[in-house]
Structures are given as structure tokens and as C-alpha cells.
Amino acid sequence: MKKGLIIQIRIESAAFEGRGYGKIDGYSVFVPNTAPGDLAEIQIIKKKSKYAEARLLRILESGEKRIQAKCEHAEVCGGCSWQHLPYSEQIIFKSKHVEDHVRRIGGLTDVPVHKALAAEQEFAYRNKMEFSFGDRRWLTNEEIQSNEHIPSEGFFAGMHAPGRFDRILHLNECYLMEPYAFEMLAFTRNFALAHALEPYNPVKHTGLLRNLMIRNSYHTNDLMVNLVTNSENEDIVELWKIELLQKFPMITTITQNVNDTNSPISVGRYEKVLFGLGYIRDSIGEYQFTIHPNAFFQTNTKQAEILYETALKFADNKEGDLIYDLYCGVGTLTLFLSKKASKVIGIELNPVAITNARQNAEFNKVLNVEFELGDMKDTFNEPLLAKYGIPDVIVTDPPRAGMHPDVIKQLMELKVKKIVYVSCNSSTMARDLSVLKSVYHVNQIQPVDMFPQTYHIESVAELLLISE
What we know:
The chain is α/β, with parallel strands linked by helices. The protein has helices spanning 74-77, 87-104, 141-145, 179-194, 234-247, 301-315, 332-337, 351-363, 376-379, 382-388, 405-414, 426-436, and strands at residues 6-10, 13-14, 19-24, 27-32, 39-47, 51-61, 128-136, 153-160, 168-170, 209-216, 223-229, 253-258, 270-275, 280-284, 287-291, 322-326, 343-348, 369-373, 393-396, 418-423, 440-448, 458-465. Helix 2 packs parallel to helix 12. A hairpin with a 2-residue loop joins strand 3 and strand 4 (27-32). The chain has three domains: 6-66, CATH 2.40.50.140; 92-121 and 298-465, Vaccinia Virus protein VP39 (Rossmann fold); 128-285, CATH 2.40.50.1070. It starts with 5 loop residues before the first strand and ends with a strand. A seven-stranded mixed β-sheet has the order 9-8-7-10-11-12-13. Strands 18-17-16-19-20-22-21 form a seven-stranded mixed β-sheet, with helices on both faces. The longest helix has 18 residues, at 87-104. The model has no long low-confidence stretch (mean pLDDT 93).
């Protein structure tokens, strides 16, 4: 088994991170864009002591679970790693991945892991899409091997090629959001070509257009377009706005983020409102939220409601309970938890998120919530507990890396009667549960699928204090 080796493999299952899994002489090999049952010709690109990674050269025999991907870019974009699998199969594999992490990493052999709750919409479920502009195109293997001349320099619009900040995968279609999102991208590129505007070059730091972000509201008709540029360029941006509104009159607000720094992020150093209010509003359950261009909001609104309802069900808080919401973000789950509680304390590191959380509480006239700004490992401490009291229930929704060891230690020392752990990464959740299980009994875990066509899966775990 050497790097560069070309060999055939039969794919046995769908592994975590959307790759197919098979074995060659007992040696594990992971191959993207493959499905269980596929016989594939592959090339080894990375070799480790216990496994290898390979790239797909071609499918020799299609497995019975393989279907034709809807999008022509599915194999190279990186955004939809499982379009070649039926959604019903994706749900099965996602459920198995959560269970595998819980059993293997968490050491929890008898905890019920329920089947993932599927999304109603397999496509066009995202309420936000962020596209990039660039002057260097990523050529696929098929394009390189074809006899056609395909220019690699010019004006390209789409996604950054996986692992490349300087190459754009030029999109001809995208099905993750409503069709108008891609149409707005194509319109902006054509406008730029007609007016000789240059896309941003991240190496030279030249060119005007950097990103185009579209956000919509699931429950209202609000629709936002946010243009990220390298400079203001008022006259040409004003013309773009006028023509964009003529083409897409359903837009309710347009903003411009000016990022004139070398940072690759799409958040501008400052922001201008070009049309409308500069924000949209959407609801999760009975609560309404104001969403600015750079504010965090769950990208699948309908499934976010199901995720939060699951967390609320597991919390099962009673009238008069004090609840802590760790890693509260903009306070969406905090407000959900407030209905029965005497008070909910949200803690968050991001100052913008805390500001939005307080605004959301005020807008929804929720008076029994408080928000604390700070790093969780430094803020979730004795002074905070002295200020608000020992909670009856703790809800924690950490980032992908999971919880800091100091936070886990505090949870184990507090010995609250219930913890609800919401996770976007079941492997780090399982790692944390493996420590917490000495004090808390993990009662059940419910995966919730927020991102069809991808390997990503959210999970909610219910932890009960073990009686001493």
C-alpha cells in the first residue's frame, strides 16, 4: 500500500465525513464520492499506519444504493458530499455514525440512540448561502483530461475549491437554497463582466468583488442580499443595486460589507445599508428574531424548531426552575427555555451575539432572561453561581470542538439534576460524555438532521444526575 498506487476496492459502508469505506487485505481505506456496494478504481493519496485515504478515479460497478446526483458539481464542490445516496439512506448512516461515536468514543454501550429526525426538505432548505468571486478557476479532473480549452483565469463565481483559498469552483447550478440565490449570483457576475469589474485576488489583494451572500426568511417574505467588496466604489455599487432590484423586486433589503483588509472573512470592516432596513426577521416557534447580515442564525429554520423542541422536551423544566444556557449564541434556545422557568441565564463569548440576544429578548418581551458575556471556562464559575444561584437544569450547546475540560469539571462538581447537551459534532460530544458519565447517567440521545445531502448531524443528549 503505497502513495500513488492505483487499485480497485469494494465499498462496504458510508463512513463519517461523507466518505466511503472499504478494506484492502484488511487495511482500511476511505474514498470520497463513493456509495456502499460500489466497485471503484481509486488512487492512494495518503497513507497512515492504520488506514489510507484515496481519491476516486472511476466507478466500475455502481452499488445498489447509488443514485444520480442532482447537481453536476456534487463530486467536487464539497458542499453536498452525499447527493449520490438517497436521503432515506443518508438518515440511516447519520444515525449509525452518532451511535458509533457514542459506543466507541463515549464507551456508552446501553444508551438508546434514536433514529435521526429527517428534514422535510431534501433540497432548497438553507436560509443562507455565501458565494465567492475570484480570478482563478479550479479545474476538475474531467476538465483537465478533456480536449476542450477551459480558461483557468478570468471572472469566476461560486465556491472556494476544497482546501484552496485562491481557486474558485465556478458554479453552473446550486440546489441548497431557492433557485433565485444562484440566479442572483449569475446576475452579479454578468453585471461585473459588463462593467469590467475585477473579482478579488487573495494573493495580490486587488479587485472589487469578494462575496455575495443571500439570506431569506422561512416564515415571512423577507429577503436580504449582502455584497462584500474590497472598497466602497459607491457609483458602481449603486448601479448594481438598481439593476438587481429591477431583476429581483422581491428583495426587501440590500447591504454592503466593505472588507478592505487582507482577512479572507466575508465580514466587512464596516457595513452600509443600501436598501431597506438592513436586516430581516424570522421566527423559530413563537419567537421572532432580527437577523443582520453577519449575525448567526440556524441555516435550516424548520429543523431548528425541531432541534429546539427536542432540547425543550429533554429539559422538561418545571415552573420556577433556574436554567443556565451555556454557549447561548443569539439567545434562540434561551428564549425557548424561558416559558416555564423562573429565569434563564445565557452565557456567550461573542459580544455581537450577546447584543443580538438581548435585543431578541427585548423584541419578544421576554423578561426572565439574562445574558453574560465571556469565555465559558472563565465565566462559568463561582462568582456567576453566587450571582444567580445553582441551576436546576443546564443546557449546553458548545462549538464543534466540544466543551473545555474546565467547564466539564465544573459540571461534575455542580451535580445539577439534569443536563441537556446539544451538539453539532457527535464525536466530541461522545468524548465529553465519556467523562460526564461518572456523575451523570446518559438517558437517551436524539439525532436531528439539519443538513440533508451532507454528513453533518446534530444530536441532543439527556443526562440525569446519578443518585448518591
